[in-house]
Amino acid sequence: MEKYNSVFILLLLLNVLTLCTCISLKSLYLDQSNRNNDLVLNCNFQLDSDQQFQGMEMRLKNKYYYFVDSGSLKEHYESSVIDSSRVIEHSPLYNTTTKYGNVRNVISSASVSNDFDCLIYFSAGGVPGFNQSSRDFVPDDRSIQTTLYVYNQVRGTYKVGDDVSVHCDYRLKAKDFLFDRRVYKDNKLFYRYVNKDQKYFIAQSGVDNVRLDSDANNTLRITINPNVGANSETGGRYKCQVNYVTPDGLDMNSTHESTLQLAGFKTILPVKLN
Ligand SMILES: *[C@@H]1O[C@H](CO)[C@@H](O)[C@H](O)[C@H]1NC(C)=O
Ligand SMILES: *[C@@H]1O[C@H](CO)[C@@H](O)[C@H](O)[C@H]1NC(C)=O
Ligand SMILES: *[C@@H]1O[C@H](CO)[C@@H](O)[C@H](O)[C@H]1NC(C)=O
Ligand SMILES: *[C@@H]1O[C@H](CO)[C@@H](O)[C@H](O)[C@H]1NC(C)=O
Questions:
Q1: Closest residue by Cα to residue 166 from 144, 143, 198, 141
Q2: How far is the CA of 195 from the centre of ligand 3 (A)?
Q3: What domains are defined for the chain?
Q4: Which residues lie with the beta carbon below 6 Å from any ligand 2 atom?
Q5: 110-146 pLDDT, tens digit each
Q6: Ligand 3 in reach of 1 Cβ (< 6 A)
Q7: Backbone CA torsion sign across 107, 108, 110, 112
Q8: What is the pLDDT of residue 265?
Q9: 102 Cβ below 6 A of ligand 1
């Protein structure tokens, strides 16, 4: 029985430890603005489907001056931090069932200051005791862009023989693990880049060869048919994809597509012969 208990505690600890490094709210943002001489604070937060809201605090210099009990929705003030009479407007908009909340405070005679923050308490996957401050929330600013260049100029059209290159610009979160980058033409993979020793090319229509120009600063740059230039089949939909693993171990990818067209290419209408 004792053995069973310690194994259970160890598993629980491991679970909590692994959760702690990666659990964060879906979004959390404290908006601060001035209205006459008053400070308007808007805390917006969103929870993931497996997270439960447990409480929130509005804080000044790491001390709460206002909080709402998540059960009774009763408001509380800590007047030693900010006198309750200075919180001239307040509205908590959330309940324990919704995944989205907004808390608005208007504080008299205050100005925009970085000393304010919003702290959310929550449970995740049934484990209670998590909290997150609007200060620590890192927004998801992952992005990817496919840009097509003709002779180093951003273009959507080309002529046979032109120097065409594809740039994949992407941004991941600092703790993401970058797995590989892929480039597709008309949804067919032609280039896969893991690192300088692991790169793979598969010819596709209009793409007989590629040259790797650079892999630095979150940009992968390749030139299509480097020796002869683009041919009449090179036009099409180019798609960059970045494959990565999130800190909580999920395989993810981001993609973006851009189109390249042969210049002056028109649909040839049937000529009427008399
Ligand atoms: C929670 O709030 C949402 C809208 O914000 C509302 O539709 C829902 O009925 C509320 N649930 C409870 C239990 O009050
Ligand atoms: C928030 O959680 C961290 C990590 O569990 C803990 O160290 C900290 O005391 C908590 N902060 C508050 C204000 O409860
Ligand atoms: C990457 O960015 C740094 C700083 O902006 C710059 O000095 C460097 O030349 C860039 N490298 C490449 C290959 O573009
Ligand atoms: C990219 O993600 C989508 C779902 O968003 C998935 O269907 C697809 O298989 C992923 N592709 C790769 C190469 O992992």
A1: 144
A2: 18
A3: 25-133 (2.60.40.10), 143-262 (2.60.40.10)
A4: 119, 131
A5: 888 768 999 999 999 999 999 999 988 777 778 999 9
A6: no
A7: positive
A8: 65
A9: no
